Amino acid sequence: MTEAEAENPERVWLKAATPIIAAGPLPYPPSETLTSILKEYLTEVEAAFIGKAFKLKQSQTMEQLVKSSKGMAEADIQRTCEALARKGFIFNQPSSSGVMVYRLLPLEVVGVFEYTFMREKPPEGFDEEKLKRLARLYEKLGTELRDSIQGAYDNVVAVFKTQPPVDRTVPLQKTEEGKEIAIEQSAGEVGEKILIAKNVEEIIDKFDDIGVGNCFCRLYRKALGKEYDVDAPYDVCFTFGKSARHVISQGFARKVSKEEAKAIMKKVEDAGLVHKAFHNKSDVKEIENSICNCHKDYCNTFDYWRAGMIAMVNYATHIAKVNDDACTGCGTCESKCPVGAAIVDDGKAKIMQDVCIGCGVCAHFCPENAISLSEKPRVVFQPPPRLAK
Ligand code: SF4
Ligand code: SF4
C-alpha cells in the first residue's frame, strides 16, 4: 500500500474501479456504490493488485504482470489471479499459441455481474443475504448510470453511436406449430454480405466445448425480490470454445452436448426468447463466443435500454415483413415484439423498419403465418429514451 493509500484507504478501491470500468462498455460512475460492490467480492490486497497491475493494460501474460505489479512474486500473482478468476474478475485461458493470458473483466457485459448470478451455486462465501445486498447495490449503480447518462445525454449518445454492435440477433427458424418461417432475400438494398452462421444450430455445430449457465438477468431479478413470469428453462446462457472452457472450469456453467444445447434452444424459441449472439472482439466477422436468450421484459439489455441507461446497438441480419392479405390485426406480434417494432394500425400489423432487429419472434407466434423475414444485414441503433426531468 502506498503512503497516499494509507492516508486514504478509499483510494485503493477507486484505483481498482478505474481499470474495471475501462474494461467494459458501460460508463459507470466511479461512485461509492461501485466501490461498495467491489468490497463485497475483493480483499484489499486483491483490489490493490488490480489497481496497480491492470492500470494500463487489460490483457497480460505472467511476464507482463510481474512487471506491471511492481515487485509481486510470480507465485503470489498466480495465486491472486486464480482467486480473482473464481470471483469472476479475471479470464485466464491460454492464447491460440498456448501462452496463458490474464484478462481483467468488467463489472458487466460480460464479467463479474454475469458470473455471480449465472451459477448453479452462489460464489464461495456468499449466502442468500449477501446476494440480495449485492443485487440492491447493482440496482443502485444502474440508477446512478442512468442519471449520469441522462445528465449528459447528447454527448453520451454521440459516444454510443461510435461503439460496435454489442450483439447480433440470430433469427428464429420455425413457427409455434413447427413450420419453417419464410426467409427471403430482401428486394431492397442489402448491406455488406458477410458469411455468418444463419441459425443457432449452425453456431452450436461449430463447437466441441459448449457451456450452459443460468439466466443471470432472471436470477438477478429474483435476488431483488422482483416478479417475473416466464415459462422458459433457466439454463439458457450459452458459451462456446474458450469462453465455455473458462466458465466450466470456474464452475459458472456446466458442459453440455450439441444435442442437449439444441434441445434447450427449441424450448427457448417456444418461450418467445430472442437469440443474441456475441462475437469475439464485438465483430460479427469473428467467431461467436456466446449466445444469450433474452426475454423482452426481463433481459437486462432490453430493460436497461428502456430505462434510459444504455443505447441498443445490435447487428441484425433480417427484417420482418407482413403479408397484409393474411394479417387479421390480432395484435399478437405487437405484444410479443421485444423492441416495440410491430404495431397494429388500422387493422393491420406494420413493422417499424429502423427499430426491427429481425429476431423472428413475431413470425414464430403469428397465428396466420402472415410474417416472413427478409435478409437485410445492418446495425440497428436505438438511443436510450430521453427521460422527463
Ligand atoms: S400476429 Fe400476424 S395476424 Fe396478428 S397482427 Fe401480427 S401479423 Fe397480423
Ligand atoms: S418486428 Fe419485433 S418481433 Fe418481429 S422480427 Fe422485428 S424485432 Fe423481432
Distance from first to last alpha carbon: 43 Å
Identify the overall geometry: globular
* Helix and strand pattern: HHHHEHHEEHHHEEHEHEHEHEEHEHEEHE
Number of strands: 14
Q: Overall pLDDT, averaged?
A: 93
How many helical elements?
16
Quaternary organization: single chain
List cofactors, ions and other ligands: iron/sulfur cluster
Instruction: Tell me roughly what share of residues is in helical segments.
Output: 25-40%
Gyration radius over CA: 22 Å
Tell me about the biggest sheet?
9 strands, mixed
User: Which structural class matches the secondary elements?
Assistant: alpha+beta
- Give the number of domains: 2
Strand content: 15-25%
Segments where pLDDT lies below 50 for 5+ residues?
none
In order across it, which strands form the biggest sheet? 5-14-11-4-9-10-7-6-8
Topology of helices and strands:
Elements: H1 3-7, H2 10-22, H3 32-41, H4 44-53, E1 59-60, H5 62-68, H6 74-86, E2 90-94, E3 100-104, H7 112-117, H8 128-151, H9 153-162, E4 167-170, E5 183-185, H10 200-205, E6 210-213, H11 216-223, E7 237-240, H12 241-249, E8 254-255, H13 258-270, E9 274-279, E10 288-294, H14 300-306, E11 312-322, H15 332-336, E12 342-345, E13 348-351, H16 361-365, E14 371-382
Parallel strand pairs: 4-11, 5-14
Antiparallel strand pairs: 1-3, 2-3, 4-9, 6-7, 6-8, 7-10, 9-10, 11-14, 12-13
Helix pairs in contact: 2-3, 2-4, 3-8
